[in-house]
Amino acid sequence: EIVLTQSPDFQSVTPKEKVTITCRASQSIGSSLHWYQQKPDQSPKLLIKYASQSFSGVPSRFSGRGSGTDFALTINGLEPEDAATYYCHQSTSLPQTFGQGTKVEI
Amino acid sequence: QVQLQESGPGLVKPSETLSLTCTVSGGSISNYYWSWVRQPAGKGLEWIGRIYSSGSTNYNPSLQSRVTMSVDTSKNQFFLKLSSVTAADTAVYYCARAGALDIWGQGTMVTVSS
C-alpha cells in the first residue's frame, strides 16, 4: 500500500498569505495525485487532478505541481473561504490511499 | 450535471450487514469507475473500493473479506454491502466517481450500535 504523508498537519494563516501543502508518496505514483478541499459537514471537493490540472470551476489561486513521489498544493492569496482541510489522494496503485489531511485555519 | 445520492439505513446493529445505495442522476453510470469512501467522525478519508459499470470490482484489502459491491446499470445505481459490522465501521459513507474523484455524493452517516 502506498502511504501518502502530508505536511504540515495544521497551518494557521492570515488572508492574502501564500500557503503550500506538501504530499510525499512512499513510492513513485507518476502524476496520479489529486487534491481535495473539505469544509466541515461537507463532502470533499476536487481541486486539482493529476498533480497539476485544475478542476473545472476551481479558483485560479489553487495550483498543484509535482510528479513521482513529491507533490505540492499552493494557494496564492488565501481567502477566508479557503479555511478547510485539504487531502491528497493517489489513484495509481490499489488500494487507493489518502493523505492524513492538512487543516488550514484562518 | 451528474449528481450522486447515497441512501440506506442510518443505524445498523453490530454483526449485521450495512447496505447502501448510490444513485447517479444527470448522466449515465456506464463507462466509469465508481468508488466508495468513508470517514469516521473527526478523522481522515478511507477508500473502501471501486466498481466499474461492467461489474468489475477492486476492494481495499483491509476490508476485502467483508465488502461486496454491485451495480445495476438499468437503474443507474451501484451498491455497497459491508458485513459483520462493528463500532469501528461507524462513519460517513460517500460514493464518488472514480479516477480522480471528481463528483461526490453528500454522504450518509451510518452508526453501528445495538
How would you describe the overall organization of this protein?
The complex is a heterodimer of chains A (106) and B (114). By secondary structure, chain A is an all-beta fold. Chain A is built from no helices and 11 strands. Chain A has strands at residues 4-7, 10-12, 19-25, 33-38, 45-49, 53-54, 62-67, 70-75, 84-90, 97-98, 102-105. In chain A, strands 2, 4, 5, 6, 9, 10 and 11 form a 7-stranded mixed β-sheet that branches. A 4-stranded antiparallel β-sheet of chain A has the order 1-3-8-7, with no helix packed on it. In chain A, a hairpin with a 3-residue loop joins strand 5 and strand 6 (53-54). The model of chain A has no long low-confidence stretch (mean pLDDT 97). In chain B, the strands form 2 sheets. In chain B, strands 2, 4, 5, 6, 9, 10 and 11 form a 7-stranded mixed β-sheet that branches. A 4-stranded antiparallel β-sheet of chain B has the order 1-3-8-7, with no helix packed on it. Chain B has 114 residues and is mainly β. Chain B has strands at 3-7, 11-12, 18-25, 33-39, 46-52, 57-59, 67-72, 77-82, 91-97, 103-104, 108-112. Chain B has no helices and 11 strands. In chain B, a hairpin with a 5-residue loop joins strand 9 and strand 10 (103-104). The chains are: A mainly beta (106), B mainly beta (114). The interface between A and B is medium-sized, with 22 and 22 residues.
Q: What would you call the shape of chain A? A: globular
Query: Biggest interface: chains and residue counts?
Result: A-B, 22 and 22 residues
Mind describing the biggest β-sheet of chain A?
A: 7 strands, mixed
> What is the gyration radius of chain A calculated from CA atoms?
13 Å
Fraction of helical residues of chain B: under 10%
Low-confidence stretches of chain A: none
Q: Which structural class do the helices and strands of chain A define?
A: mainly beta
* CA-atom Rg of chain B in angstroms: 13 Å
Question: Termini separation of chain B (Å)?
Answer: 39 Å
Distance between the termini of chain A: 34 Å
Roughly what percent helix of chain A?
under 10%
Roughly what fraction of the amino acids of chain A lie in strands? over 45%
